Amino acid sequence: MMTNVSLGIMAYNEEGNIGRLLETALAQELCDAVLKEIIVVASGCTDSTEDIVRSFIAKDKSIRLISQPTRQGKASAINLFLADASGDIFILESADTVPAKGTFNKLIAPFKDSSIGMTGARSIPVNSQDTFIGFTVHFLWLKHHQVALITPKLGELVAFRNFVRSISNDTAVDEASIESIVRKEGYNLAYVEDAIVYNKGPETIRDFIRQRRRITAGHEYLKKTRNYKVSTQNPARSMIELILKKKYWWDMKKNMWAIGAICLELYSRALGYYDFYVRKNNPFIWEISTSTKKWD
Questions:
Q1: Is the overall model pTM greater than 0.85, yes or no?
Q2: Do β-strands 33-43 and 3-11 pair in parallel, antiparallel, or remain unpaired?
Q3: I want to staple 121 with a disulfide (CB 3.0 to 4.6 A). Which of 195, 267, 275, 279 is the partner?
Q4: How many structural domains compose the chain?
């Protein structure tokens, strides 16, 4: 029996990448499954994102566009997708990422095990590692990878069974919110390390801090409201262990960059704690880090 798959793409001003993502998604080959529908939720877009999606719809009727007139946060857009999708398995992808060949198939395969409720791909940044911030982005995602191999922490590109009907509109960490629901229902998570999705990390320290403090505040909100803590919320120890495993000590520049990456992550998290506990701020509609949108 074929498994029907629904792909949801959440987009806000993604004219630079949405076409590349749709082309890559349509080219994915699945075994024992069919990509039944691709639903793009465009939230308050002021660029040509919707026009590009419509040009794809004219060629492939499996693609649908949900136009949200005003931007109400990514979680709100996800809930529109969840209400409209009808597949057995949902794949959720940010519009600023691109999956590698075969990634969807690898992401779906673990669901043959009835205990698995959610899977996640490995994110690999396309940033150059020749700069401090590029090195930091790769270092951070490598840390996430090492932690996820032990205790899955899923993000950027995830798949889950069709029982999650909504998440809180005011969450800033949507994948983690879905994780908490899946766990509560008694299912396990699976980190699929050979299912690769490419993303673009921040190119400036300012954008890095903005992104990381928002995620920290979002995780604190999730911990408070759903009593759920993601596996990467203890950064210092795992990042220091990563320095030792990577043996950066023989390369003075990378050694200093690695220490700087830890300091920058801890500083960003401190700001996130301040935002949540002192300012009482839960940034579920966040300011975009513009450098993450510039792939070329």
A1: yes
A2: parallel
A3: 195
A4: 1
